[in-house]
Design a protein that fits this description.
Length: 210
């Protein structure tokens, strides 16, 4: 999985875009921190006194929550690297925002249809869920009674899709009760899959780390 590390210097009223790395992909935030950890990052034009505090200058928990809330599951997002957004962990120090993220594909297949996953390299499944978690996905033409239950998930989803697709260039999985069981009788369900495309070398290193 290709991970991206982005550093955004604090600028008043300046917003920085975190782009997705390809069409059809969504952002997944793995880490974020607003503060300062060294004296060189975002140091151009700054007085030495603004670069001294490199310990205990972080807002890790709040930073991660804010970035996840702003960006997860989106094709792109905009974040302001300012103390008004993240708080001020070290007054008088010039800070920056670090974000660790990946871009992953996400698909949703309505019940009764086939999920067709294709990749130029090999598929790596990061998550799968057969059920329902909102009232809008796969709702066209369905009566309201089939969309009410939104806490519905098949516990076998991830294992079934991973076994069918991991390491392949393409795979087909049926979004059906016969494959995943029926986690919520009477509710119209769908299969969501989050995955990336990796080279065979990356996939091998992931499965057999040194």
């Amino acid at each position: 999985m290709l991970r991206h590390w982005l550093k955004i210097c604090t600028r008043k009223h300046s917003y920085s875009l975190i782009p997705s790395s390809g069409e059809g992909q969504v952002l997944v935030i793995h880490g974020a921190d607003y503060g300062r950890h060294d004296k060189t990052t975002c140091s151009d034009g700054r007085a030495a006194s603004q670069l001294q505090v490199v310990q205990l200058c972080q807002m890790s928990a709040d930073s991660l929550f804010i970035c996840i809330h702003s960006c997860n599951g989106k094709n792109s997002c905009t974040i302001s690297a300012t103390s008004s957004v993240f708080g001020n962990p070290c007054f008088g120090t010039y800070k920056y925002l670090e974000v660790d993220y990946t871009c992953q594909f996400q698909s949703a297949t309505c019940e009764g249809s086939q999920a067709n996953l294709q990749c130029g390299w090999v598929l790596v499944i990061h998550g799968a869920d057969y059920g329902r978690h909102d009232k809008t996905t796969c709702s066209a033409g369905r009566p309201a009674s089939q969309l009410q239950v939104v806490q519905c998930s098949s516990p076998t989803s991830n294992d079934v899709v991973a076994k069918s697709c991991n390491g392949k260039n393409s795979c087909t999985v049926s979004a059906s009760n016969s494959v995943f069981g029926d986690p919520c009788f009477g509710t119209y369900k769908y299969l969501e899959v989050v995955y990336t495309c990796q080279s065979r070398v990356q996939s091998s290193l992931r499965d057999h780390p040194h």
